[in-house]
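If you are new to this repository, start here. Below is one unmodified record pulled from the training split, so you can see the exact layout before writing a loader.
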Amino acid sequence: MKFTNTLRRSVHDADERQRVYRLAASKSRAFTWKLIRMLLVIGISFIIVYPLIVKFSVSIMSRSDMNDVAVRWVAKNPTLDNFAFSFNAMKYPTALANTVFVSVVCTLLQMFSCCLAAYAFVKLKFPGSKLLFVLAVFTLVVPPQTYMMGMYAQTRFFNPFGLVEMLTGKVGLINTYWPIFIRSLCGVGVRNGLYIYLMTQFFRNMPTELEEAAHVDGASPFKTFYRIMLPNAVPILVTIAVFSFVWQWNDEFYAAILTPDFDFISRNLYRIDNMITVITGAYVNDPAYTSILKNAASLLAVAPLMLVFVGAQKFFVENFERSGIVG
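And here is the target side for that same chain:
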């Protein structure tokens, strides 16, 4: 009897030790995986944030700091005069107002046109719809340099029935906002093919029962679109809005062709060397000083975009998988 009890206790202790070992091993694996994920997140975050850190570190340096070999990261004589100079050189208030206005209007127009196009491609089958969808997406791989002359000529001499000349007193729409707005409204704006693709993938993943129920209730296709489909498409609309706003904000190609006399953040950022010469009244042959001003100007250009990302981060991250990119 004593031997049996001793054997049972030994077996029970062995089972208990195995259970403890398994629990410890499980916790160890979980902790190791959490540590690996944390290191990966920290590493990727550092890679992303590192350029901003470098730009800020350089932008607050004085000219003496840039020529001092002992200065690497922290400035000996930090100053904010570089930001003030870049602010004036970029004509920041005017450029910011123009850029925000064009970016917001183009974002709204692109969301409208892409929603209608994507819904038509998915829900309204018609002859040639697949070919048109392929062509819309194919616009992403067509370099804009291949058609910029035709686009400029079309815009420069745009005067249907003489209406443009009658209203504005001149022929064409160059140096007006209208060419950019018309392109966005007609679905040929900056990266419109990508937005149509994302919206198409989203509508394809929506349950068909919702649309069928609306048809049973007597709703027309347009009413089904704006009463059922559109409210459910808020996540992808926010994603498209962020993409559209950022790409329109950074657009320098179309702005230089269609609105050459307008001040925009992207254009003035690329022309910072000429701006320095105009303000100082002389050619500044100092690459170090020019680098300081370029870094300060870059931070001024990026600051509004960071606010946009912070505001839209929740929708952008949580609903990214529903956009059709993942999967």
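Two things worth knowing about this chain: The CA atoms of residues 9 and 15 lie 10 Å apart. The radius of gyration is 29 Å.
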